[in-house]
Amino acid sequence: MKKRNAWLGLILLALLLGAGGRALWLWLDKPIERVSIRGEWEYVSADYLRTQLAPLVQEATWLSADLGELRRRALRIGWLNEVRISREWPNALVFELVEQTPVARWNDDFLLNPKGESFAFAPLGVPQGLPDLAGPTGSGEEVLTYYRRLTPHFQGLSLSLSQLRLEPRGAWRLQLSNGAWVMLGRRQHEIRLARLSASWQRELAQVGEHIRYIDLRYPNGVAVAWHGESDFAEENE
């Protein structure tokens, strides 16, 4: 009898604790009333971030909120590179946000971060002074890497690149800071760039502002078109 009473006591205690725990959970699991955002941002504003985050927590409650899922959804917000979320007593969530660092414009509607990963910039504007890069879907890292390789080469000619394009068939073309286009093609890039450097230093630099495009896709020498002449041909090699 004593043993049976002891078991009944334990069962009653467990039920009471369970009921108490459930009541405590319900008491704590209140709707989220405050969202704090922390971080240092150069391009995005706190108002923009609040507007983007508000729908994510609209129906969430403090204890039941799935922080992992919230983080995944928050990372879909344009301009966010990293998101960390924590709970703050009694009914708040804290978002620590790291913004993307744009290094180039990509295919008109996107920007690239330093890893060559694309992200949408809308509804914000595009930062000034970024190079304009383009290429097939998924080629952002390749195009950015090649842009970085080309930059020192043209700096040595007192030039910079304003645009770099990788065409679907694998040909490259680029635009110099003076507005001239350079048709680099698909093959023998180093040889062609060396030929361009020699021609530029020998004679083309003096007439650079009159050049419409330079075609390097020839076995020997370069072809130059001047402003007022016909458009350049499509890449054929």
From TrEMBL:
The keyword Membrane applies. It is found in: Cell inner membrane; Membrane. Keywords: Cell cycle, Cell division, Cell inner membrane, Cell membrane, Membrane, Transmembrane, Transmembrane helix. Pfam families: FtsQ_DivIB_C, POTRA_1. Residues 30-100 form the POTRA domain. InterPro entries: Cell_div_FtsQ/DivIB_C, FtsQ, FtsQ_C_sf, POTRA, POTRA_FtsQ_type. Gene3D superfamilies: Cell division protein FtsQ/DivIB, membrane protein fhac. It is a single-pass type II membrane protein. It comes from the Bacteria. GO terms for biological process: cell division. Essential cell division protein. May link together the upstream cell division proteins, which are predominantly cytoplasmic, with the downstream cell division proteins, which are predominantly periplasmic. May control correct divisome assembly. Part of a complex composed of FtsB, FtsL and FtsQ. Belongs to the FtsQ/DivIB family. FtsQ subfamily. This is Cell division protein FtsQ. The gene is ftsQ.
